[in-house]
Design a protein that fits this description.
single chain, about 900 residues, mainly alpha, 28 helices
Length: about 900
């Protein structure tokens, strides 16, 4: 039916199937040989294991006469003989007992394998392919008419079947010991079965000799005959039969395919194969049949797809799999309660996948959608009655989402959410059949999954099954709602969809409350958490559908706060993670667009969208962290605390940037921006240092260090280098006293000093001293720049340094050192005195390195005179006040008595 490359494809499949069957037959022969040897050697000690009580796809009962029994466990060695004193030997000993046991037969060599096995298998393959290719050649060369072809094909099939049965009976009545040879009866019977399939199919589909009813009956008889023959001849015939049956339509092809005939034929083959797999509990046969059946769905996909026969194919295969393959449902194998069986679940999932492919290939044709809906509903029913197929719920939910998502992303010009309704003449209206059918399907799927997911709680002793039901019941309605929103509302603001999301959240909330009041059952806690997650997720979607831009960010942040509060009322562990997930979503939203509302931030300082977009999330995350900390210090709490610190810092930085640039968020930084950033960062670091002492939170601890490091980087590279008005920047610093120097250097010095005191005694001494050293450096820089401002005006970069200015630097540094020393003496601070010593030492160095060469006249003399006076005064101060030593009184002379 399909010419060209499919011939090569069919040949490869047939050869591969024969090789697999060769391996299976070789293993079976080896097992028979070993079993015969063991029976002859240890017949008295052999123990046979009883058959399993509840066979599944994992265990196959050895009931067939022709099937080799399972290998018995190695016989236990006979107990060692007792000593002569304990047990004397009997007086009479039989000759047979004294004879040594026969040696086990040696393994067959290469020549024996070649002559007794491989040649036979290759011959069987040649017989089958010869029959197929003879039919093709007779068709192409026109040697014989259609009737003669069919007649000869039938005779050849009967001859092969007869030869197979005759050789089987001859082997069964022979007294010759069994040899590890290939199963010749099975090979001949398999070849005859395949030829019979091809002959009947050609008589019906190619030549029209048979009406559909007659072809159906004959193919059914051949399928039943194959089933009966496989029961006698074992898995080799089953493997060859199923491969040959599925490959037959490819080898015997026609120019114009008849899909109805093809899929009726495949349905009969599938039924026979599933029946055989069920009787013998051959997992491999069921899986092979499903794979071939699904592959035929892909081969039939054409630009002008015939939906009806393809829909029949997947529905028939799904029905047969439900009846014969699914464990615990109808005629499937038995299984223990609460166990999810892979073959049962994957069989339904495979046909759901095929149905989904038909829907997508047919551009969502109505008939394809109806067939897909029926299969999804049948999956819920089968999984409800047969818990072994519960795993198919995941496949059903995934295929439903894919169908609706693909429909959503298709090019669609309709504008259903415009205030005036759909544009006339542009696109379909909401009542068009495609939209209507999808809306009906969406309602059916959402209700089916949601209600079934709720009602399934408490029906199983296994925790996995109710969790799978609840996960599918929560995820599917939400996924469908998102797809419909993308298709109909084009991801724009839509109040109707927001209302639907609120209703869905209410339904999930009611389910959550109902489950919390139930008695404890396996999986009930996780299922309750999933429904609670669905409640909050639906509310988040409602906010997404109803709000715009920045409001969505705020709403999601408030969802995190609400989730944390609900976790206090309903201690469901997953709610803590859900609060952290919402925080992560908001963070990702900020990373996508830091301005939150794009160019609509505005120019108003402070009171703009940045305050609401960053401030409210920061407040929400701080509140959520307070709620979560009441129960535990765990990863979700740390994620929330990290988000709180991050959004607080971002709020400060973004507002500072907005204020410093006048609303132009992409302009280069300035001295004002760096100064404000350093001050605010140091203030937040001080606050976190105080907070961590009470909370003992690792996030607060790391956050304080991170903010201090950020402040240090901005201070060094921003204030001292890039925007330093004395080095590179020609910025106008402003007035004589109240200017940018006060904000950029004096205030940071004070905050650094406070931070050093905040960490003193709680962090390493070197850490605190480093911060104190930064405070000293910024204070000295402020003194220097302020003197420069006095001599040069608001722009410090230009102009030379006069002698008076150089002398003023020395006097100013010296005065600053004296002030520090006075403070150290008054408050008894060793750190202040050491800082004073550092400043005075720097002043001395300046005097002997710079002043001696640059100053002239009275300024040079005054510089050294003032320096000398101050140094002498400092020495007197240290000797008389700080380190005064009391002189020991002279000894009193002793008088004689």
């Amino acid at each position: 039916m399909f010419d060209g490359p499919f011939d090569v494809f069919a040949l490869i499949i047939a050869i591969a199937a024969f090789l697999v069957a060769i391996k299976a037959s070789s293993q079976a022969a080896e097992l028979r040989r070993r079993l015969s040897s063991l029976e002859e050697t240890f017949d008295a000690q052999r123990r046979v294991q009883p058959p399993p009580l509840t066979p599944t796809w994992e265990q196959a009962p050895a009931t067939a006469a022709a099937e080799p029994p399972p290998l018995a466990p190695e016989a236990e060695p006979a107990p060692p003989p007792a000593t002569e004193a304990a047990s004397p030997p009997p007086l009479e000993t039989s000759t047979e007992a004294a004879a040594p046991p026969p040696l086990p037969a040696s393994a067959p060599g290469f020549e024996e394998r070649l002559g007794t096995r491989w040649v036979v298998w290759i011959g069987g393959l040649a017989l089958a392919l010869g029959g197929f290719f003879m039919v093709r050649y007779s068709i192409e060369a026109g040697l014989v008419g259609p009737g003669v072809r069919v007649f000869l094909g039938g005779l050849f099939a009967l001859a092969l079947l007869g030869a197979g049965e005759w050789t089987r009976r001859k082997e069964s009545i022979s007294t010759i010991q069994a040899l590890p040879i290939a199963n010749i009866p099975a090979i001949l019977t398999a070849a005859g079965t395949a030829v019979a399939f091809a002959t009947i199919y050609a008589a019906y589909a190619l030549y029209g000799f048979l009406v559909p009813a007659t072809a159906f009956v004959l193919l059914g008889l051949v399928a039943l005959g194959t089933l009966a023959a496989a029961l006698l001849h074992g898995p080799a015939l089953a493997g060859l039969g199923v491969v040959g049956a599925f490959v037959t339509p490819v080898l015997v092809s026609s120019g114009k395919p008849d899909y109805w005939a093809l899929y009726i034929y495949l349905a009969i083959v599938t039924a026979a194969s599933f029946g055989l797999a069920r009787i013998r509990l051959w997992r491999w046969l069921a899986v092979t049949t499903i794979v071939f059946a699904v592959l035929w769905t892909f081969m039939g996909l054409e630009p002008e797809l015939q939906v009806a026969p393809h829909a029949f194919h997947v529905i028939a295969g799904f029905t047969l799999a439900s009846l014969l393959v699914v464990c615990g449902f109808m005629f499937g194998p038995t299984i223990e309660d609460g166990e999810i069986e892979p073959v049962s679940s994957s069989s339904l999932g495979a046909y759901l996948f095929a149905a989904m492919i038909i829907v997508l290939s047919s551009a969502h044709a109505d008939l394809a959608l109806i067939a897909f809906t029926l299969l999804v509903g049948a999956t819920l029913l089968v999984a409800w009655r047969g818990p072994a197929a519960t795993g198919a719920l995941g496949a059903a939910a995934a295929t439903v989402f894919i169908v609706f998502a693909e429909w959503a992303v298709r090019a669609n010009p309709d504008m259903l959410v415009l205030p005036g309704g759909p544009l006339p003449g542009v696109g379909p209206a909401a009542i068009d059949s495609s939209v209507t059918l999808h809306l009906v399907m969406a309602a059916v799927f959402a209700a089916g999954f949601g209600i079934a997911g709720f009602l399934a709680q408490g029906r199983s002793n296994s925790a996995v099954i109710p969790v799978v039901w609840s996960a599918a019941g929560v995820a599917t309605p939400i996924a469908i709602l998102v797809a419909l929103y993308a298709r109909i509302a084009h991801l724009d603001r839509s109040i109707p969809f927001a209302i639907l999301a609120v209703l869905l959240a209410a339904a999930f909330g009611a389910a959550t409350e109902s489950l919390t009041r139930r008695e404890t059952r396996p999986g009930i806690m996780i299922s309750t958490a999933l429904f609670a997650t669905g409640t909050l997720g639906a509310l988040a979607l409602a906010l997404t559908f109803a709000l715009e831009k920045g409001w969505l960010t705020i709403a999601l942040a408030l969802m995190s706060l609400g989730t944390a509060w609900i976790s206090m009322q309903r201690p469901i562990p997953f709610l803590r993670w859900l609060a952290a997930i919402f925080a992560g979503i908001v963070t990702a939203r900020i990373a996508y667009d830091p301005r939150i509302v794009g160019d609509a931030v505005g120019t108003t300082p402070i009171l703009n969208w940045l305050l609401w977009g960053y401030g409210l999330p920061a407040a929400s995350f701080w509140g959520a962290s307070i709620f979560l900390r009441r129960r535990a210090d765990d990863p979700p709490l740390r994620m929330i605390e990290t988000a709180a610190i991050l959004f607080t810092a971002l709020l400060a930085f973004m507002e500072i940037r907005h204020f410093a640039t006048g609303g132009d968020m992409i302009s280069p930084p300035s001295l004002l921006e760096f100064a404000l950033q350093v001050c605010v960062t140091l203030a937040m670091a001080i606050g976190l240092e105080r907070l961590r002492l009470r909370s003992h939170s690792i996030v607060h601890n790391v956050g304080a260090i991170a903010l201090s490091a950020i402040a240090a980087l901005i201070s060094v590279f921003g204030l001292l280098i890039l925007e330093n008005p004395l080095l590179f920047s020609s910025v106008n610093v402003g007035g004589l006293v109240f200017n940018l120097l006060l904000l950029g250097y004096a205030l940071p010095a004070m905050l650094m000093l406070l931070l050093s005191y905040a960490v003193a005694g709680h962090r390493p001494v070197a850490y605190a001293n480093t911060i104190a050293g930064g405070a000293l450096a910024f204070a000295l820089t402020y003194v220097t720049l302020e003197i420069r401002r006095f001599y040069h005006g608001p722009v410090l970069l230009y102009g030379g340094t006069t002698g008076a200015e150089q002398y003023t630097y020395s006097i100013g540094w010296l005065a600053f050192g004296v002030v520090l020393l006075g403070v150290g003496v008054l408050v008894n601070s060793e750190r202040a005195r050491l800082a004073s010593a550092a400043v005075i030492a720097l002043t001395i160095l300046k005097a002997f390195v710079i002043d001696v060469w640059t100053l002239t006249g009275v300024y040079r003399a005054l510089s050294f005179m003032c320096l000398g006076v101050v140094l002498v005064a400092i020495g007197w101060l240290y000797q008389r006040i700080l380190f005064r030593r009391q002189a020991a009184p002279p000894p009193v002379p002793q008088t004689g008595s």
